[in-house]
Design a protein that fits this description.
The chain is α/β, with parallel strands linked by helices and 390 residues long. It has two domains: 237 residues, 3-Layer(aba) Sandwich (Rossmann fold); 142 residues, no CATH class. It is 43% helix and 15% strand. The chain is built from 14 helices and ten strands. The strands form two sheets. Strands 1-2-6-3-7-8-9-10 form an eight-stranded mixed sheet, sandwiched between helices. A hairpin with a 7-residue loop joins strand 1 and strand 2. Helix 3 crosses helix 4. The longest helix has 18 residues.
Length: 390
Amino acid sequence: MSFLKRRTTITGVCMALLASMLVPLEARGECRTGTYDAGGANPASYLVCVPDDWNGDLVVFAHGYVGPQEPLAVVDYTLPPDGAPVSGIITGMGYAYASTSYSDNGLVIAQAVEDIRVLVELFPSISETGVSPARVYMVGASEGGLVAALAMERNPVFTGGLAACGPVGDFRKQIDYFGDFLVLFNYFFPGVLASFTDSGEAPTPEHIPAELMERWDAVQAAALAALERNPPARSQLLRVSGIAADPEDPLSAQSVLAVLWYGIFATNDAIDKLGGRPYDNSRRWYTGSKNDFRLNLRIPRFHADAEAVVAMGKGYRTSGSLLGPLVTLHTTADPTVPYWHEPIYNLKTLIAGSLLRHLNIPVVRYGHCRFDQSELLTAFAILRLMAAGR
């Protein structure tokens, strides 16, 4: 039995035992909504819930990426299998709950860390309890997972953190992952995306024409048709990009469309927020195609702008130097935020002297943030145990 399988089996048994200890009761209490100013582009909206039997602790939730074209709003997310709201699960265990829309949508990680800090600071007044929480737990998913990790590295107010399916290892590498997939899709399926632009030119990591986003439904359909029509090109795209494929989906449609969506909808916003082009493949050697020499000779090359590189290093790069315990939860076949972030982050914590403050729980499954309620509750229970031993 491999180490990963053995560790996963042991972890699974522990998770089952701990999950039985964390059965949320029916949530009873009051929730409040409103807005607050954290110095961002817009006032942020908040959702704060305090149960009648509050245990004095607070759980703060950082949500994942929301497209810049979407309205700014705070959302009470739900979890499988029964669609229970996150706020209800948390308050059902006796914790107060707080979440924020952030001050903006799109790439907002750096500002989100500040939005979260201010929300915790304002909790006594906006919750109308007049009391600061005894312990504050930071929980985040996807983009919010990176927010949680950065918060645990930068702010001692947090007792512990849980980062689920987040790009915690190398944010710049994550940006390149999305950009690579876009240029590779254009290479293996020439003309598919270009047919939806007014200029007839393919979108690139330097600029995405607005009409491509406006015609996204048709773009998806065309991309799926191309995948089905050309299996050899599809296989090469998957191999070269390194994207995780769904074993139950012969076309790998969900994987392709998910990563392609980010390449199309997140690129312009990232360039704007970072002050320049963040993507760079100028020295990348691609492998896995039928003719790697031809691929590397013909694929377009792009250079990142220095300002964007500095911005990523300053506001988006983790150090691994943790001020408190951090549990990271990640599916091993995540097509959107690959699992390779976890060993990278683990190495960072080793170098920074924080290895014993970090625990990664791998979930052997396909999908992005595809966890069930018991897995998340168990990860939170483990976090509590780690925090108790500080």
